[in-house]
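Whiteboard transcription, Tuesday session. T.W. wrote the structure tokens on the left side:
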């Protein structure tokens, strides 16, 4: 048994001083056993502490190993994604919010005022408007025959305006189945007669229906309108035919281009 204890001590490097001490003394085996047991208990406590420390170191080694490996493993750097050029975004100016209109103060109710009755106004009687004549041109008098109307027009200030003493002319008419003439020599008097005119400048033939309208014309303007209409647009029962017997240039120098009535009778009026 002593040899076993000594072997245990040597194996764990615990020493065998106590065992040698006991073997040299020659102590009682029981006492020596108790001493050895006591020392064994102490040594076992030390062994337990040593084993506990070794276990802690192993745990720490195991825990630190993966961390070291993680550090030693090469890390593959991932390629950086290509840069994307962002388009510049124009910053719009911030619009300031419009100020809210302040609520208008409520008007205080005013006391109702009774309106005074308006005085009755009697309607004024409208004065009768004066009749305004539509045509201010002088009216022509009534004539029953065409010769009478022609004689009157050569003395009318509107129809014969601009007639002068040196003017001379000779016109022959055929109207209402009768031939007659009107003539004037230079610085002479008017001549009216039936039949053919001596050396006439123009021959004028007028339909009976046209003569009737010319006699009913109220003004010289109406007379001219009917005469030119039937000359330019003759009809079966209404017409005015004009035959010039002299040169128009010489006639114009003698007053046909200047006197309204002569200009109308030869068809030159507008």
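and on the right, the sequence the group agreed on:
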């Amino acid at each position: 048994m002593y040899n076993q204890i000594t072997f245990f001590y040597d194996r764990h490097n615990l020493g065998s001083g106590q065992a040698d001490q006991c073997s040299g003394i020659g102590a009682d085996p029981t006492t020596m056993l108790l001493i050895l047991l006591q020392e064994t208990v102490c040594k076992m406590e030390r062994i337990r502490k040593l084993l506990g420390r070794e276990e802690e170191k192993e745990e720490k080694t195991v825990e630190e190993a993966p961390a070291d490996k993680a550090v030693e493993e090469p890390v593959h750097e991932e390629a950086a994604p290509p840069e994307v050029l962002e388009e510049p975004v124009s910053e719009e100016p911030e619009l300031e919010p419009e100020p809210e209109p302040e609520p208008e103060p409520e008007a205080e109710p005013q006391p109702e005022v009774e309106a005074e009755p308006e005085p009755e106004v009697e309607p004024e009687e409208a004065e009768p408007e004066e009749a305004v004549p539509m045509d201010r041109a002088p009216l022509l008098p009534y004539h029953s025959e065409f010769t009478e109307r022609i004689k009157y027009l050569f003395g009318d200030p509107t129809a014969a305006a601009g007639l002068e003493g040196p003017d001379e002319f000779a016109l022959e008419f055929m109207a209402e189945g009768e031939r007659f003439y009107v003539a004037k020599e230079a610085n002479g008097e008017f001549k009216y007669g039936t039949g053919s005119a001596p050396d006439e400048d123009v021959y004028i033939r007028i339909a009976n229906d046209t003569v009737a309208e010319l006699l009913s014309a109220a003004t010289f303007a109406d007379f001219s309108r009917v005469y030119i209409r039937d000359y330019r647009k003759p009809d079966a029962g209404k017409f005015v035919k004009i035959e010039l017997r002299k040169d128009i240039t010489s006639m114009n120098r003698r007053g046909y281009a200047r006197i309204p009535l002569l200009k109308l009778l030869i068809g030159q009026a507008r």
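Someone added at the bottom: The CA atoms of residues 39 and 213 lie 176 Å apart.
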